[in-house]
Amino acid sequence: MRSIWKGAISFGLVTIPVKLYSATEQKDVSFHQVHRDDGGRIRYKRVCTLDGEEVAYADIAKGYELATGEMVVLTDEDFEGLPLSTSRRIDVLQFAPAEQIDPIYFAKSYYLEPDAQGAKPYVLLRNALESSGQVAVVKVALRQRESLATLRVRDGVFVLETMLWPDEIRKPDFEFLDEDIDVRAQELKMAESLISTMEADFDPTEYHDTYREALQEVIEAKVAGKEVIAPPEVEEEGGPAVDLMAALRASVEAAKREREGAPAKPKRAASGGSSRSSSGSSSRSSSGKAKAKDDKAQEGEKAPAKRKTRKSA
Asked: How far apart are CA 211 and CA 219, in angstroms?
């Protein structure tokens, strides 16, 4: 990892110099736009819409468009006069219980590493914060943007979680919230039973990105020159079940069987033997047909072509 920012945690009269690292990364398959015929990369030019001339990056400024369509051009001098903190400080504003902060506010996570001279105060604040069970609410300026953030401890390291401002959180405005939807007590009890049946300790390593893995296999097959087989189509799920209680009860039973490791019950137990015999006979029959077809094809290959095509007048 490479540090992307250097600054200091300001905690009262204590200053802790730190380096900032991105704590997460997108494991995605990246693509380029290319010419379909020869694979050449597609490039874009920065062209002015007024004179059609290509513009150098040094001559590009930031513009704010008004409702009238007019443009307000802002220069570097305009940004220098703004009250954005340039002191590279992470100012601790308060401490609060972690459960009071809605996760919807969190935007991005960063690791904080102490400089050599800041290791002791870093560990001191880390241990105190960890024992208190709280998080530090801080303010920080990153990439020309001032943000609220929290400091918490994970695996012995401070994690800085940048947050959205309250006016950046959209209010849910959906029609069903104003509707009077009746939920029966039996349905609620069955839903709670389903939740308790599926309850387990969360282990993120049990889950993986199946789409990315399948896409990587397609790319590797292309590289190896193999034939790419299209994945089977997945049927779209229908609407909600009409009998909610029956659906919930079936879900609970299925979850219990999966938890206990028991195989799912067949729909018709009595037809198990006949299905096996019929499947065996059908497989023998199909294999016999396939063999006969192959023999006939071989005979056709051995036989000389005696037929002559008749030319039309």
From this structure: 12
CA gyration radius, the chain = 33
d(CA 241, CA 247): 7
| pTM beyond cutoff 0.70 | no
Q: What's the pLDDT tens digit per position in 276-292?
A: 444 444 444 444 444 44
Cα–Cα distance, 4 to 18 (Å, whole number): 11
Q: Residue 147 forms beta bridges with which residues?
A: 140
Please state, in angstroms and rounded to a whole number, the distance separating the CA atoms of residues 15 and 9.
Answer: 6
Q: What's residue 115's pLDDT?
A: 92
Q: How far is CA 271 from CA 167, 279, 284, in A?
A: 63, 12, 20
Both structure tokens of 106? 């969190």
CA 53 to chain centre: 40
Contact (Cβ atoms closer than 8 angstroms) between residue 62 and residue 245: no
**Do 107 and 47 contact (CB within 8 A), yes or no?**
no
Six token digits for residue 265 = 């019950």
